[in-house]
């Protein structure tokens, strides 16, 4: 779901992180990148292709931890830039309220959202991006899908962690659920 | 609160509009234009100076009717462009849900929002604008205020129709109410 | 979608209403009645069986006009009581902001929400009901469905006006879209 | 802001909790208890009187941690019952999305929300309560205030941690900010 190892090292040893992950819910942000037309209608949804926490290659969204001392907005921007590159020009929402809260558990049956490493409570946002996106770090690819394609069986089969449900929640929020 | 006379004429005679206004709630949109920083924090709020429906010169927001057959988004964009000029580059929100619903009544005591001409039910949105704004039509001026200034007594005394309350609702929504 | 004829008669002659409906968007409220458990999770969705505006018998939600001078909340309560009976004990939401805005047009292709009689802009709310519901007026039946059943093909085929989409938007809003 | 020591002990030693609190943001929920009329209008806001994290006696809201493996809803209900007693009958919101996100920091200047013990990211909800409330545990008192009283100088001076701002955000969300 994320790849935040590199940012953690400096401030929390991996072993401590592992201990914490087994005892505390972790604060996360999820971002669904979208293209919008001049009226604000969502026309396309961006999905990354990468190695999921469970080892499979899958379509996924931007997702990552909020660090100690970091504002939620700063974490959201940091993860967007990390995954979409420095020229993406993400438009962070003006309201701090997420459109939904995603609860990831090591047990996939609790909420339907799954992360084998941890219990994460994630604030989910839809983020329009205007600029050039280039997949960075561990992302293998970034592709754009129409709302219809994004909820199609073909794409949903490429998604894990419950992200095939998150995309539908996001599209419902923007009034574009097919 | 608005100046939609010119767009009405072609399709609904003024006398019919007057009759309708006395019998039906009218669908409106309100837009609070804001400047945001790269993190999405609202840094400034834009307010128009113009002649309010009650005849006073006052600070106010973008406000206007949704026409027959018109999408809410299209109305929102139309009124933003009408009041801010063609180069304002308003960023319409991705969700169709307003942050609040403002109910204007000819009786100022019903809801605290007042319009002597009509009962209007208005969908209110916060709209970041990136471009150059130039007051158009009947607006005499457009000024930008920090959140602190926008809720100050000096500015509030220049506002009518309950817009001094609307600005606080908008700032609360974006987490910037001082 | 609604049956508000009887409440209109007293204050707006049918012929005037017909003229207005052909010239102005009409302010509506839609309510999706739900049953919730003690944690606030939606467990069931209520749907009325009745004659839709297009003449077909269909599954639908609570829907109706906001009258001149009426608060949105009062309209929402009135329509809930009209359709669910006086013992339903609807729990109106504390926020005036709807979870989505439904735009009904006489042309079904504009937004996917259809009303042959009019252009209606409807504020949509999810309304938990605790009490005994009894279908009233023109509703033939009220049935409760689990979220899974509510989005099943069998139920969707009984829905018109785009309400098969509205139910999915409502379930997404409450985090229960299957 | 909270008093969750007793629930922590069983599963995370105090010293480990202290270490974690110095390294990770902690997931919290805040609940603003309210009384509503039959139309859903907020008529009163409940505030607890208790010893705040900074040692002062202050007016505050329900606030507490989400535990490892616990759903956000379950945490919200648990903290409501802990602070309001078992007969309060809290009405948890149907949507998992909080109305705002409160970021508490040990440095009061970062966000205006302050907790000397930790960086907490708190999901804030307005929770109507119908039943009998009795302050429990470390709360010294529970009092109900009208929206006007709740934002008065007299009451605001009794609030710490930024909760005088949280009450205004909550009242704005429900359309009752005076």
Question: Which keywords apply here?
Answer:
homotetramer, 178 residues, alpha+beta, Nucleoside Triphosphate Pyrophosphohydrolase, eight-stranded mixed β-sheet, 6 helices, 29% strand, globular, disordered N terminus
Write up this protein.
Chain A has 6 helices and 8 strands, in the order ααββββαββββααα. Chain A has 178 residues and is an alpha+beta fold. Chain A has a single domain (5-173), classed as Nucleoside Triphosphate Pyrophosphohydrolase, CATH 3.90.79. In chain A, strands 1, 2, 3, 4, 5, 6, 7 and 8 form an 8-stranded mixed β-sheet that branches. Chain A is globular, with a radius of gyration of 15 Å. Chains in contact: A-B, A-C, A-D, B-C, B-D, C-D. Chains A and D meet through helix 2 and strand 5 of A and helix 2 and strand 5 of D.
Would you kindly provide a brief summary of this structure?
Chain A has 178 residues and is α+β, with helices and mostly antiparallel strands. The first copy, chain A, contains six helices and eight strands; from the N terminus they run ααββββαββββααα. Chains A and D meet through helix 2 and strand 5 of A and helix 2 and strand 5 of D.
How many distinct domains of chain A?
1
> Rg of chain A, please?
15 Å
Q: How many strands, which pairing sense, and closed or not: the largest β-sheet of chain A?
A: 8 strands, mixed
Oligomeric assembly = homotetramer
* Strands of chain A, count: 8
Which of globular, elongated, flat, extended, rod-shaped describes the shape of chain A? globular
Order of helices and strands of chain A: HHEEEEHEEEEHHH
Q: Tell me the β content of chain A.
A: 25-35%
Number of helices of chain A: 6
State the CATH topology of chain A.
Answer: Nucleoside Triphosphate Pyrophosphohydrolase
What's the helical proportion of residues of chain A?
25-40%
Average pLDDT confidence of chain A is 89
Helix-strand category of chain A: alpha+beta
Return residue spans of chain A where pLDDT drops below 50 for at least 5 consecutive residues.
Answer: 1-10
Please give the alpha-carbon distance between the first and last residues of chain A: 25 Å
| CATH class assignment of chain A | Alpha Beta
CATH superfamily of chain A: Nucleoside Triphosphate Pyrophosphohydrolase
